[in-house]
Amino acid sequence: NIVFNNGQRDFNSPGDPTDSAIFYKTTQTKSGIAAKTTTDTRTKIWFSMTDENEFKRVIGLGYDLRTTEGYDSGFDSYLANFYPDNFYWNSLAGQLMVQGLPNLSKTDEIDLGVEVVNSGNYTFAIDKSENLPENTPVYLKDKDTNTYYKLLEDAPVTLTLVAGTSYANRYAITYAKTTEDLGVDVSELDPVTVSCHKENQQLIINNYPNLEAISSLKIYSLTGQAVLSLKTVETNTIQLPNISNGVY
Q1: What are the distances in angstroms from CA 222 to CA 103, 206, 207, 248?
Q2: DSSP E strand boundaries for 37-177
């Protein structure tokens, strides 16, 4: 079997002192005693597409507050077109084989791109995951038919695909099947925004009523330095430390 596995790629920001290259690696000293490592609690999911000849392509998805919807150097990776069939994230930044996003949300619909040169059965699966929140469903959504296929690490989904058919915008990964799963009417949701009041050094979280659901809040500078870290958020108005002008 030939396996193209992107699992060895480190989802890590270069030059960031808060992150060691510990995605899969363990360090060891000359004396044989393992060096101290930092626990990586970020959510990461690897998805695979396998053809009838068991040729597998794997793409990665990770969540980090320092990423954006666009391309983020050190987190995202563009698709390498080495293979006749392609499986990728159809993102705002282009075709990605590794994509980083800031937050996992039930309202997410993360577009996939699929290209096949041979008609046949293709199996889609969660290849593996790390730190996926408990009881979080993961669905492969067919946007053309509004069909949801629940993905599990031990229960892949097989679809029949036709060569020459464009699947660039047909499939997506979601974490909720219906508005009932969300528990709200999505059409009535106001966008969550964050504003900063420079005069009184305050950060305001807008349109997010369930503050108890926030497990932590951190603010980083562009160099990766943590300037604020909160374990709980009790109010939508957060007093900032005395920080200099810049992008955070």
Answers
A1: 18, 23, 26, 6
A2: 44-50, 56-63, 77-78, 86-91, 94-101, 109-115, 120-130, 138-142, 147-151, 157-161, 171-174
Residue with tokens 């992008």: 247
Q: Coil, strand or helix: which one is 211?
A: helix
How many residues are there in the chain? 248
> How many angstroms separate the CA atoms of 97 and 77, rounded?
6
Kindly report, residue by residue over 192-215, the tens digit of the pLDDT. Answer: 677 777 777 787 887 666 777 777
Which residues have C-beta within 8 Å of that of residue 226, sequence separation ≥ 6?
A: 18, 218, 219, 220
| Contact partners, residue 205, CB within 8 Å, separation at least 6 | 192, 194, 211, 233, 236, 237, 238
Judge if pTM exceeds 0.70.
no
